[in-house]
Structures are given as structure tokens and as C-alpha cells.
Backbone:
């Protein structure tokens, strides 16, 4: 509601949006699927995005044509495919990385 009209918003004040959210909270509005985009990604684009990014991403986000998400992943936490992180160890004998022992970079 408070996003600029040129990006598809209502151009209203944050107070209007607050009142709408308070009133909407009394009902089971299907807004959960849009919460990451409208609550995090959109405001970040408004604050830090280029004009091109704002024009490209904000209107479809507000129309519900694109759904944004945030994904967390922790290697070796059980939810990933086989852990895909870098492997590095230090040789107890030399204190140097095995990848650098020969003076060449490991590939």
C-alpha cells in the first residue's frame, strides 16, 4: 500500500499500511506466501535497488505474479545433498596445508 505508485504500489503512507495490516489480521487472509517478498525483498529493493531492478521486480511482486522466497542451507545438517563444501586440513607435521606442499595450487 505504501510503495510508490510507479512500481505498482498504492502511494499511501506507512500508517495506512499499518491500519490495513491491523484490520486484515482479524481475518485469515492468504498472505503468507507473499511475506518474504513483500516484507523483506521488496523493501530491500526499494531502499537499495537500481531503478532498473525496481521497475523489473516490484510490479510483478505486488501483483502476485512472482513469489519470492528465502532459503537456508547448512552443509552437513542433513537437509542437503551430500555435503558440497570445501575440504581443507592442516598437516600436523608441517603446519601447512596439503594443497600447498608442492608449491602448486591444488585443483
Residues:
Amino acid at each position: 500500500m505504501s510503495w510508490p505508485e510507479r512500481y505498482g504500489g498504492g502511494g499511501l503512507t506507512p500508517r495506512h499500511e499499518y491500519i490495513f495490516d491491523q484490520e486484515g489480521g482479524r481475518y485469515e487472509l492468504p498472505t503468507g506466501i507473499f511475506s518474504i517478498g513483500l516484507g523483506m525483498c521488496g523493501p530491500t529493493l526499494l531502499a537499495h535497488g537500481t531503478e532498473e531492478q525496481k521497475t523489473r521486480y516490484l510490479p510483478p511482486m505486488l501483483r502476485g505474479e512472482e513469489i519470492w522466497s528465502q532459503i537456508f542451507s547448512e552443509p552437513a545438517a542433513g537437509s542437503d545433498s551430500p555435503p558440497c563444501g570445501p575440504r581443507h586440513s592442516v598437516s600436523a607435521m608441517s603446519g601447512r596445508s596439503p594443497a600447498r606442499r608442492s608449491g602448486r595450487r591444488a585443483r
